[in-house]
Every structure is written in structure tokens, then in C-alpha cells.
Amino acid sequence: MTKLPSWFFATAAIFALCGMVWGIQMSATHDHTLSPAHGHMNLIGFVSMSVFGSYYALTPKAAESPLAAVHFVLTVATVVVLTPGIAMAITSQGETLAQVGSVLAVVSMAVFVFTILRHGVGSVESQPLREHEVQPQPTESTTSSESFSTPKRHTRILPRFSNQLSKSGSFCHRQRCHQTKVSLRSCRATFRCSSKSHS
Fold it and tell me: Which long-range contacts (CB under 8 A, 24 or more apart) does 102-109 make?
């Protein structure tokens, strides 16, 4: 960024300080004859130059153009010429200087309008992201399906494990049935022996 915004702000502060001192002098002498000249110096010298400096601080591209320096010179010349010109017109010393200062003020504002229309307001807009820089974010549906899906390796193991469970279950069932048959046979044999002994 150039130093042009600082020049505008510094010059505006100097004009404001001069206007304050001048206002105190008029208040102390109770002579407000030159109040219009005092008001124009504060308006153009402080307010307008502060607005111009703020614009150039927000728009670096406009501050770097050669027209911005011309704008600064025109604004300072407007204050330097118009303020004493108004004072001379009030005291009947001629209006030529005031007229020249008025023309400079119009030209300075016209340059500011042209600068705004040409460069806009604000810094250079950031470039959009390129296609290869944009990474798609996973959606909720895909993440949920991926988290709850069963891998293929597990699906191959599950049938084998289920077959083993079924085989072991049938083996246990046959073993229980065999034990039940043996116990029934032993009970029958015991009953027969006891019945023979009683007879």
C-alpha cells in the first residue's frame, strides 16, 4: 500500500488543528465575520480529506494510480485557495480567488467520482478456488453406509462359522439323546433285576 492515505489523514489533521485555533481566536475576539471561511476550511480540509483518505486506504488499487496523487494536490490547493478567497470576498477585497477555489473544489470532487467509478470500493476480490483444490466432503448417507457395511472377508467367514455351530449343535443333541437311551436301558435292567429278586 502507498503512503497516500497517510498523506490525506495527516493533512486533514493539520487543517483541523488550524481550524480549531482559528475558532478559538474568533471566540476570544467575539468577531465571527470570517465564519464562512472557517467552515469551508473545516469541511474540505478535514472532513473531505478524511473521507478521501479512508477510501484510498480501503482501495489500494486506486491509491496506486497516478490520478490519486493529482487528487491529493487538487484537494490541498482547494483549501489553500478557497479559504483566503472567501475571507477576501467577505472583506470586499475581490472574489476572484474565491471563484478559482470553487472551481478547484468541483474538479477535486469530480476526480473522486471518476476514481470510484473506475476502481470501485474495497480491495481486490479473492480468486475463486480451482476445481482440483476443491475436495468433496463425504455425505452422511455414504458415511453411514460405509460404517455399517460388512466387509467381504467377514461375509466369507460367517457361513463357515454358522456351519460349524450347526454341526456342533447336532453333535451335542445326538450325545444327549444317546445318554438318555443308556439311562433308560439301565433303569429297565435295574427294574427287571429287582422284580426277579422279589419273585
Answer: 104/74, 104/77, 104/78, 105/44, 105/78, 107/74, 108/48, 108/71, 108/74, 108/75, 108/78
